[in-house]
Amino acid sequence: MHNRTTLFTGLLFLSSLSSFAAETNQCQILPPVATISYDANLADEQQIKISSDKSAAIADRLAQFKGKVKINQGLRQISADQAQIDHLNQELKANGSLVFQDHMFTITAEDLRASLQNKQANLSEAKYWINGQQLHGSAEQLELNENNDLILNQADFTTCPDNDLAWILKAREIKLDSKEQWGAIKGAKLELYGVPIFYMPYMTVPISNKRKSGFLFPKFGTSTTKGVELGLPYYWNISPQYDATITPHYMSNRGLHLKTEFRYLAGEAQLGQFNIEYLDADQKLLGKPERYLYHWQHAGKINDNWRIHANYTDISDNNYFNDLRSDVNRSTSNQLYRVGEVDYFQENWNFSAKVQDIKVLGVTESPYQVLPQLNFNYRQDNFYSLIDFKFNSELTQFSHQNKLYNSATRLHLEPSLTLPLHSPQGSLLSEVKLMQTFYNQSAGVNPDTGLTDLTRSVDRFIPQVKVHGKLNLERDSNLFGANFRQTLEPQIQYLFVDDVDQSNIGIYDTSLLYQDFDGLFRDRSFSGLDRIAAANQFTLGLTSRFFDSANIEKSRFSLGQIFYLDQNTNNLFKNVTSQTGRSALAAEVDLHLTKDWVFSSAMQYDTDNESTKRSEVTLDYRPGTDKLMQMSYRYVPDLAKEADIAQAGLRTVWPINDKVNFVGNFYYDLNERRSVETYTGFQYETCCWSIRLAYHRHIKTNYADQNLPPIEQRDLFEEGVSLSFSIKGLGGSNRNSIDDMLNEGLFNYRRPLYLKN
User: For the segment 465-479, what is each residue's pLDDT rounded down to a tens digit?
Assistant: First the structure.
């Protein structure tokens, strides 16, 4: 029998508890009853549908339902053994195997009483589950008031399974405000394995994505240079557009390091943040110097055409990042970028205005400041027949903080015509370019060249011609009994750049580019525009790939070299005249040895001097998504005219069992015969909590600084132990992740080369 009624229109509506739940679905705890599917189109449905095995009614007074009772309204459903609707008192009663469900919750209870008039409801001896999440709990009394606020008396919640209650939070009362989306907890007591460890008379938690002021998880660790470390972050929810995190970070060897991060939203499409870090007196250093950091960044769009970007950082001394744990930069960062930029975009052209200053830590000479730089770029495809036209221009004013150095204004105009021809069998690109650069230089010393007799006004005209052709050949192949599709991709490029004397031009933003296989086919040897190397050369390159039947690349091999028709004898940049008859031979290999083993290598070999200019090799073993072992080797001779780099490394992530993971990395300097970094971390993790213990020892980068003690008085290595604990469902579900451990230390995954200073 199916009964319908429209006597009440506001049955139970429960507030969200989603913020209590863990943020992953790997450890879902399912309710003991089957969840139901919902039709989103019924979200605003007010009509009540009741079905049961038996029903009886007294007109306008009482309706009774027995046997498999189901009450549906919109996205909500109640099932029970029996139910009764009292029309006179406007009350609904239900009991016997009672289950309440909606798209958020599943609740079981002994019985239910609901007012049809003011939408109040009470459930006794209730147990609840968050659908699709870990959080679940119980309450002696669950009440829903007329404001749709949920009140749980003598309640508890946890994210642990019932058979392993590692932690549970019990409370005298939990009130969830559906309008403000906050939960107020009275008499909160946290138990670990049945032992009370924490009591809070009153606390509030978010029950949606809304933010709430309060303390975050503390951070604890030790190190030889910082001593015992303790950080206690406090989150301040100022308004929907502003928030701040204030972290007193105490170091027993250095003092109290106060860190503040302020974030803001500027309209719907712009955001930014301020960081201020301050240590009043560093107890570790002689003289107890004051140390600080200021940082500001901003990004966003003003409208569909305008973009804006700004970034500024300043620190008290060169070794700030090496000595202190900053929220802004890693210790391996040795440059501070200060930039402000505004961009305007249209379909075929764009314009930008930029100011820039770079502070290089540990050097006495600073780069030039860009105050400002204006760029205008235009592109028109099929400008004439199949020919594309492109015009790039730049106007830059260079100045230096040291007034003894010269300043300059540079105007660069670069029109080009390109004929691109493409087909499945290959491509041919022909390009003609005219680079016109005009300098107005003031008198003074150029810090990069030491020249004092720079020409005040310089006009430089350099034509360039480039032709780049590539073939795509392929065939079916059989190796080791398996079928593959093999490609052969030869390519050749001719490049001509006129030889123009540039010794009368200062060096303002130019440096030598790294020449790997892809770099062989660039048309520039230098970044920036102050030096444009002459060229009359051919570049030959060959790439071969093997694809399996699923069209997945299993191996790739590339080999290339430049052959110079004319030797460039101009002293273009710091005595760089390396063009003999040919460049170094560049080779790259990427080989999937098996399903789990991957070998990668890149090398530049000087065939004239029979010496390696640079090489890197990695061997990865990945038998599963949570298993990794990487062995690596890097060699760079005569880096920055100071030292050879020859370093080997090992990095691994490996599960010991279902709950314990190991992360370790070790990097060794073969020249100095010492380790540069050692990191070992163990993490024990269950569905509802995790703990991590880690040890680290790494070399410290020490820069000369007139405000700090001499380098020989500073620690060469830093080592320490850190311990962190996270309870999932109380704001710490993502705190201890394996990805975080991979990024601990000096080197990120696949970036193991440590460049010594």
Answer: 999 999 999 999 887
